[in-house]
Amino acid sequence: MLEIITQFMSSTGFSLLSIQQVIMMLIACGFLYLAVKKGYEPYLLIPIAFGMLLVNLPGGGLMEKGGLFYWLYQGTKYGVYPPLIFLCVGASTDFGPLIANPKSILLGAAAQFGIFFAFLGAIAMGFLGPEAASIGIIGGADGPTAIYLTSQLAPQLLGPIALAAYSYMALVPIIQPPIIKALTTKEEREIKMEQARHVSKNEKIAFPIIVTILVVMLLPTAAPLVGMLMFGNLIKESGMVPKLVDAATNSLMYIVTILLGITVGATANAESFLNPQTMKITALGLAAFSIGTASGVLFGKVMCKATGGKINPMIGAAGVSAVPMAARVVQKVGQDENPHNFLLMHAMGPNVAGVIGSAVAAGVLLNVF
């Protein structure tokens, strides 16, 4: 009887459990707490955290060849899921604020500075060029772009980079407000912006077509991301295929989010995550995202001065491409200062520009490496 009990205990996960796995499980539970109790981007954090929890429970073999997550992960590994996410984002996003205020493109571009800062920092830390490029893209706060670029340039780093990118996307409401407040005065945060001009349907239809032609002709490597983003927006603005729009913005978006989130989380096993290299990637990613936010705000201050105080510099923080989370953060901080201040649509301009900007930055890095 004792032998049977001993054999049973040796076949359970408890006999295989390591301290490193316990640490990863605690981190996963921390993410679940933030998602469920604090409401920090639950659509992202819950799948990521539960995938992380499952893969660190010993003996399951979910990420081993033939396991459930092994097959689901192929869509992440080969860069299939990110363009699909871009299609869904395009179909659910109004580019009107960007078209109405083209100056927003400058704010979106300024917020990409964090990408190139982290790239140089990674080179200084000894990472190879393709690896540094993949780490740098975390600064765009765009998980799909980070996954796509890393799958092409440094697939061996896909796990920690994807997890860092999505984690910082989910933690936008925590990371951005202190940076915004540190770099702006109360008077600047209270600035009210004039209502943007009306954008016609023809402009909205022409925009994705023109952007696709210009960007893809200039950077063919950006075609998968920019092309799918603009295709999604075109089916939305054409008004001719409402069922396709409904499928992209609802069922397809949520299905791909589940698959991408849980497989990204499943890459965070204790062996690959708890090492000095991953800690460096995580630190560089946080620095990149923080600097991207700061550079967007600082350029917003420049534009505020140049326009005689007509632009609230906080909208520069939305230049990172976490759509629409960064724009919502700007709206919340603005209303905390002035309950009658409505900055959401103004912040969506730089936010959309940031999505395009991060895809273009990925195309540039792919061209270089």
From TrEMBL:
Highest taxon, organism lineage: Bacteria
Transmembrane segments: 12-36, 43-60, 80-99, 106-128, 161-184, 205-231, 251-269, 281-299, 342-366
Chief place of localization: membrane
GO BP field: sodium ion transport
Membrane topology (UniProt): Multi-pass membrane protein
Signal peptide: none
CC terms in the record's Gene Ontology section: plasma membrane
Subcellular location: Cell membrane
Designated name of the protein: Methylmalonyl-CoA decarboxylase, beta-subunit
GO MF, any single term: lyase activity
Keyword Transport found: yes
Keyword terms: Cell membrane, Ion transport, Membrane, Sodium, Sodium transport, Translocase, Transmembrane, Transmembrane helix, Transport
